[in-house]
Amino acid sequence: xxxLRYRTHMELDLAAKRLAELGHSTRLSVFRHLVKCGHDGCxxxxxxxxxxxxxxxLSHHIARLVSAGLVEQHREGRVLHCIPKYDALDExxxxxxxxxxxxxxxx
Length: 107
Description:
single chain; 107 residues; alpha+beta; Arc Repressor Mutant, subunit A; 3-stranded antiparallel beta sheet; 56% helix; elongated
């Protein structure tokens, strides 16, 4: 039996969802661009200009990142901003490495 130690199935499912969304090249590009923009994020228009995909396609990818809890959005007038959720990214990375170097999985 494999040695898998995780606190809850919910935690495992959430980590899997986040990793799956980041596993798509367009969403990964969007998220990496948002990280470059920093804690203030950037506008959807800026993301579209940099990534170079149609607005409807970008909207779909951003919605998936929001659904996974990796991005939040807020509106300033007519401009929609996307902000990377660094705490969610940190949680996901911590989940992947939480048992690093803990030794053998044998019981």
